[in-house]
Amino acid sequence: MTIRAYKGILPTLGKAVYVDESAVLVGDITLADDVSIWPLVAARGDVNIMRIGARTNIQDGCVLHLSRPSPGKPEGSALIIGEDVTVGHKVMLHGCTLGNRILIGMGAIVMDDVIVEDDVIIGAGSLVPPGKRLQGGYLYVGSPAKQARPLNEAEIAFLSESAANYVVLKDEYLAEA
Q: Please, which domain of life does this record's source organism belong to (predicted)?
């Protein structure tokens, strides 16, 4: 794995974290326990902070970044991801805040200052434009993403199951290392 400092700050990894050797993590990034970072993920915590919660998985080809402080927004936009989040292949997350138990479908883009509440599914290929708030308990799809329907009980249960499945998978990868 490639873990690099930026301005003297190295990423911090919790217990039982898996970072694929082809992934790149730079700067002020904190991974909580049982996080998995899969092949070809690029995550730069260079101009702000990035925090990824326990049991979250960032799948192949994702790009994670943030926004620097500016005169119009002195705090910039950090990237904060909660617990038990599944981030599908080739997702782009930029300076947004994700709650807990979220599934982001393949190829989705979530932009600056978006807030995603707990228990949300964002459909594959969706674009969540800057500043939007996604209410918990719903499926969002489209470009721009729109609330499609409430999640049913099985879908809500699946959000935690998906994260748990990736904890098992990353443990298998760690056992082979």
A: Bacteria
